[in-house]
Design goal:
Blueprint (H helix, E strand, L loop, with lengths): L13 H26 L2 H12 L7 E5 L5 H10 L4 E6 L2 H10 L6 E5 L12 E7 L8 H10 L1 E12 L7 H19 L3 H13 L3 H11 L1 E9 L4 E8 L1
Helix pairs in contact: 1-4, 2-3, 6-7
Length: 242
């Protein structure tokens, strides 16, 4: 991973994907603690909201892509129950190992390696697909959305939980101070300033709520719904596959 003074490879390149992969491998051990610190614990509530939006029933199947340490996957498993099937997939084995530790004793959920841009699952095999704080890490967002929709059954629901940038002051000022200045400092204290400098950078380059909704429409979803939370810092997008 380059230092903060070096330029990153362009999004869409293999070098970009490899650097993001290595970055998440490095920060796996501090990932949960940093999430709690940066969001004052609110990230758990946002994941519950996203899991609710999937509208899963007992016995349903779900795929949680870019699952990280598995918090959203486990929320989904609470809704599908022991007769359901939840797969959490990620490209970081250290993250997956932590997720497996959390899931010990929880029936109906498993964690496995996958490339979000080339999912190994069959077409239309999941009742719901989710991504929590991972879509902005896709090297090619359009390709990633196409894969999410491909593995979703017709009538199934896609849910994306993501950070977004508030547009109006004073919250936009606070967001810029917190994410652009303070988060990298917290990352430095956690031992990886570069990883937590990437966070605000990735949010800046990710489509806003309206733009992402348009991409979901282009990917083949209908009944698209956007909920903005925390004064404009968090967005939950959902849609149903046509």
């Amino acid at each position: 991973m380059p230092s903060s003074t070096e330029s990153r490879p362009s999004r869409g390149s293999e070098d970009f994907a490899r650097q993001v992969n290595r970055m998440f491998d490095r920060i796996a051990g501090v990932y949960d603690a940093m999430n709690r610190l940066m969001t004052v614990g609110m990230d758990r509530r946002w994941r519950r909201r996203a899991a609710d939006r999937a509208e899963l029933r007992r016995g349903d199947s779900a795929l949680d892509v870019c699952c990280g340490t598995g918090d959203l996957s486990l929320e989904l498993a609470r809704r599908t129950g022991p007769d359901g099937a939840v797969i959490g997939c990620d490209f970081s084995e250290p993250m997956l190992e932590l997720a497996r530790q959390k899931a010990q004793g929880v029936p109906g959920v498993r964690f496995e390696w996958a490339d979000a841009l080339e999912l190994s699952y069959q077409d239309g095999c999941f009742d719901a697909v989710t991504v929590g704080f991972g879509a902005r890490n896709h090297a090619n967002l359009d390709r990633g959305l196409a894969e999410l929709c491909r593995v979703l059954r017709p009538g199934g629901r896609l849910v994306i939980l993501e950070i977004t940038r508030p547009r109006r002051p004073p919250l936009s000022w606070f967001f810029a101070l917190w994410f652009d200045r303070l988060v990298p400092l917290l990352g430095a204290l956690a031992g990886d300033r570069d990883a937590y400098s990437y966070l605000p950078e990735s949010v800046r380059t990710f489509p806003g709520p309206r733009q992402l909704a348009a991409k979901l429409d282009q990917a083949g979803l209908e009944r698209i719904r956007v909920t903005v939370l925390a004064g404009g810092i968090i967005a939950i997008h959902s849609g149903v596959r046509r």
